């Protein structure tokens, strides 16, 4: 499975690439970025509701406790 690129726009309007993989996943998700200023990872559902928030110090995100769906 290839990493999927997501673009984050910061407060200054600059874009940073974040790789998220594997996608789709059945539990563990990993992310990586060259941007060292990222301090928090937030996971939203398809309705835009915050489902999970963690410190960015861990590049592993455990999603198995969330209901199956699109995030």
Explained architecture:
It contains no helices and six strands. The protein is globular. With 71 residues, the protein is mainly β.
Question: TL;DR of this structure?
Answer:
It contains no helices and six strands. It has strands at residues 4-9, 15-21, 28-33, 40-44, 50-55, 60-62.
Average pLDDT rating = 80
End-to-end separation in angstroms reads: 18 Å
> DSSP helix count?
0
Number of strands: 6
List the strand order in the largest sheet.
1-2-3-6
Largest sheet: 4 strands, antiparallel
The low-confidence runs, each spanning 5 or more residues with pLDDT under 50, are none
Portion of residues in helices? under 10%
Structural class by helix and strand composition: mainly beta
Q: Write the H/E string, N to C.
A: EEEEEE
Kindly estimate the percentage of residues that lie in beta strands according to DSSP: over 45%
Name the shape in a single word.
globular
Q: Compute the gyration radius: what is it? A: 12 Å
